[in-house]
Amino acid sequence: MQISRSKWFQPLLAVGLGVLFLVAMWIGGDARNGLYSLAVMAVFGALILLGGRSETIRGLRGDGRDERFRQIDLAATAIAGSVLIIVIIGAFLVEVARGQDGSPYAALGAVAGVAYLGAIAALRLRS
């Protein structure tokens, strides 16, 4: 059994991220929002863990994955990535129009562009 296929992987990842959010916000002097973030992530983890027989929840959790859900996940990831890239470009343009240097949006856009080109090259070599 792979850990990513265990029904515990996503819930534990959510709580782990919540703890990281708490620590980071606490260090930054905002423990209240850190606790709120931990609570939100813990509730999300519990919903994923206790989601029952829902095909969607089981697919997100990993224990109900099949070829169809892998394709859905791939398409959803591509859509989310495209939306994020559009938002980063838009935020960069707004910052530049306000006379700012566009950071950190320029760096994020560059990382996305390099990752995309690297993925194209790697996938092209594999096919």
Explain what this protein looks like in three dimensions.
The protein is an all-alpha fold and 127 residues long. The chain has two domains: 1-65, no CATH class; 66-127. 77% of the residues lie in helices and 0% in strands. The protein contains five helices and no strands. The two termini are 29 Å apart. The model has no long low-confidence stretch (mean pLDDT 91).
How would you describe this structure in keywords?
77% helix, mainly alpha, 5 helices
Brief write-up:
It contains 5 helices and no strands. It has helices at residues 9-27, 31-49, 55-61, 67-97, 105-126.
Instruction: Give the end-to-end Cα distance, rounded to a whole number of Å.
Output: 29 Å
Shape: flat
- Please count the helical segments: 5
Order of helices and strands: HHHHH
Largest sheet: none
Helical percent range? over 70%
Mean pLDDT level: 91
Portion in strands: under 5%
How many domains make up the coordinates? 2
This entry's quaternary arrangement is single chain
Which spans of ≥5 residues are poorly predicted at pLDDT below 50? none
Strand tally, please?
A: 0
Our Rg estimate from Cα atoms comes to: 19 Å
Secondary-structure-based class equals mainly alpha
